[in-house]
Amino acid sequence: MSVPQKHTHGRASKDISDLPYSNKCILGVTSLWMMLPVAHAMLRWRDINASQKAVVLALCCACCSSTMFWFDARRGSLLHKLDKLSAVLYVVSVMFATARQSQRAMGACFLFTMMLLFVLGDMCFRRSMYRLQLTLHLLFRYVAYWWGHILLVPAKQTTFLVLSAAYFGHVIALLLLCLKRKSRQDFYGSACLMLLILVCLKFTA
To answer: Of the candidates 18, 74, 146, 155, which lies 20 to 30 Å from 6 by C-alpha distance?
Structure first.
């Protein structure tokens, strides 16, 4: 999921490439957290309904496109367009799945919170408040993650506090590591691989 680009009158439009390396790296690597509910759903594929399967497919697209896009984030690129399209498809799929489960109030709450965080993050981006933009975008992702998690993972397997602590702890660790590096080529791939290994270990523990 990416930051939207808007043209402004009288000054040059902000570009995604203006974001610090740490922002782009963290947003790319943490996209892979979305694989956790996907893995849960894949193990129960025959037991989930059609709307949940649509969420899984949309979530896979959003996760993969976001991870690839943030590796070399450029406005207007094919991956940028794919990232935005995948994000829209994910939101549509979770809204439909939520409505099917007669949880419209929950869906409305998730949608409003995501829109608010996204708009605030975009405002910070256009004002070059990059640290705050990163925080708001990560919170936007956090809400989007839990919307999909609630729809795909059985309630008895939902460990809110543990996963929340792991998510934000991972973000902090990435930030500290990114600040020591100027090039993502020597770190981005290994950071993505490490997170995927941790997701796999969760299912073998």
So the answer is: 146
